[in-house]
Design a protein that fits this description.
359 residues, mainly alpha, 7 strands
């Protein structure tokens, strides 16, 4: 009664504080609504400014790109014009030098000037055109000769080196082709062996799954089925289950407890294929009712006898704890102090059994 009175006073004090706090916060929604409206207005204005700025930036970037393209085109045109001017100046200089040489040759051989020679000879127009065509042809032939380049005196030796390199590359190609064929053969052998081992393991797991499913459900049938591909290495897995009194269907159409039992059957089917000395189970009996918990514990006892596996089960279910050989738990005899305790149920049953009467 004294503790209840003290508790009542504390609760009254807390109620007073809560009422004061509620009164202080009564007008908070209004202030928050006003602040929210102002924030939305500022946000709208900022969004509008950002949109305008983005449009201006986009136009400026487009104008800058156009200016850059125009500048590049102008630079290309200027470079081409400079090259044309240099070529033209070279041609003019060459023509002037040729004219000077020709004038000297005419003066030495004919003792006259080129202009006087042209007036004396009086070459008709058709011959002048033919001379221009000949000059163009000579220029074209000279250009083709320059494009051909100098004569390569080491061409025979380079050809032999290229042939040797080709022979080496052909040998390496043959080696690579043989290695690829060998590797493909090894991959095929590994795939065949993998399929054989997978099918053997699948058959064993399916057999254990059928036995455990019947044992946990007290009847019914179930099996595993490969789907989506004829190749076991690429196929998927489908669980077909038929609990007692139900039609054969897929795992997704069963209830939660039935799905849990089916999943336990598959897990232990894989476990029985290659048993381990220790197995830890964490809250696997949580979705099961009492009858299914008893079946599950019986299955654990049978598997422990068959394989010698020690099972460590983390559980809060009373029936599961009652079926175990030893219990471990954590208790708190004092506040803030934890202690690990264990109970051997076999020894406890011997202590609990009544003593035998003396003869």
């Amino acid at each position: 009664a004294s503790g209840a009175g003290t508790r009542g006073q504390e609760l009254a004090a807390r109620r007073t504080e809560a009422e004061a706090e509620a009164a202080a916060l009564a007008d908070a929604p209004g202030r928050l609504a006003v602040a929210r409206g102002e924030a939305l207005t500022v946000l709208t204005e900022a969004e509008t400014a950002r949109t305008a700025t983005a449009e201006s930036l986009n136009r400026a970037e487009q104008e800058a790109q156009a200016s850059s393209r125009a500048a590049r085109e102008a630079e290309h045109g200027l470079a081409a014009s400079r090259e044309s001017r240099v070529r033209a100046e070279g041609a003019v200089a060459q023509a002037e030098a040729s004219a000077t040489d020709l004038a000297q040759a005419v003066a030495e051989r004919l003792n006259t000037t080129p202009e006087q020679l042209l007036r004396d000879v009086a070459v008709p127009e058709p011959h002048a055109q033919t001379e221009a065509e000949a000059a163009r042809k000579l220029e074209r032939l000279a250009r083709e000769r320059d494009q051909m380049g100098p004569v390569n005196l080491a061409a025979d030796r380079e050809a032999e080196e290229v042939e040797q390199r080709i022979a080496t590359l052909n040998a390496e190609r043959d080696d690579l082709t043989a290695a690829i064929a060998k590797l493909r053969g090894a991959i095929g052998a590994l795939n065949r062996e993998g399929r054989e081992r997978l099918m053997a393991c699948f058959a064993e797991v399916d057999r254990h799954f059928q036995e455990l499913f019947t044992r946990l459900f007290g009847g019914g049938t179930a099996h595993l089925k490969m789907i989506d591909s004829d190749d076991p290495l690429e196929a998927g897995l489908e669980i077909m289950a038929s609990p007692p009194g139900k039609k054969l269907t897929t795992l997704s159409l069963l209830s939660g407890g039935e799905q849990a039992l089916t999943a336990l059957s598959l897990i232990f089917a894989v476990f029985l294929t290659n048993p381990a000395p220790i197995c830890v189970l964490d809250e696997v009996d949580a979705p099961l009712d009492d009858a299914n918990v008893n079946r599950f514990c019986t299955m654990l006892e049978d598997i422990a006898k068959e394989t010698g596996t020690r099972f460590l089960v983390v559980t809060h279910h009373r029936l599961t704890m009652a079926r175990m050989d030893r219990l471990y738990g954590v208790t708190m005899p004092e506040r803030g102090v934890s202690r690990l305790v264990s109970v051997d149920l076999t020894v406890a049953e011997d202590f609990a059994a009544p003593p035998m009467a003396a003869e």
